[in-house]
Amino acid sequence: MQYWLFKTEPDEFSIDDLQRKQEEIWDGIRNYQARNFLRDQVALGDLVFIYHSSCKEPGIVGIAKVIKTAFPDPSQFNDQSKYFDAKSTPDNPRWISVTLEFVEKLPIIALSTLKSDKQLESMYLVQKGSRLSIQPVIEDEWKYIIETYS
DNA sequence: GCCAACGTTGGC
DNA sequence: GCCAACGTTGGC
């Protein structure tokens, strides 16, 4: 069992949207490091913190579960999509999606809270320059966050 | 809107 | 392969 943190902008797709739809193809990831995690490491049954970014109160807002692993991100072939990539072909897809299922909503665990917690100093999310939209969370961090803040 | 910290592109 | 210019992320 592995743990992850996926960022999303709530204006685009929020935890409430996921709760309403129950499952969602996680598309639009256009960063190679994040893509590599999706392609090579995200496994069936892994648990994911859903994180709201670029919004009034950034933070962890819920939990989801991986119910389908690496497949070509459909949006890269859709020329109507803002994620369309003309250089990607079905034979050699460049971008990868997984499907997430809603598990639960959490009372927001604010970025400022996580940042000020000494126990979480080494968490990737709070590192300077951390920008990855798909990032691993180590088991100790996951359990500590659940026990302390949910 | 600002800007630090990256990531990508493309000429050489 | 180097690196300047440009683009993006995302907190504040």
Structural commentary:
- This protein has 150 residues and is an alpha+beta fold.
- The chain has a single domain, classed as ph1033 like fold, CATH 3.10.590.
- 21% of the residues lie in helices and 33% in strands.
- The chain has four helices and six strands.
- The chain has helices at 15-21, 32-40, 111-115, 139-149; strands at 3-8, 23-26, 47-52, 59-72, 96-110, 134-137.
- Strands 2-5-4-3-1-6 form a six-stranded mixed sheet.
- The longest helix has 11 residues, at 139-149.
- The protein is globular.
- The two termini are 20 Å apart.
- The structure holds a DNA duplex (12 and 12 nucleotides).
Salient structural properties:
150 residues, alpha+beta, ph1033 like fold, 6-stranded mixed sheet, 33% strand, DNA-binding
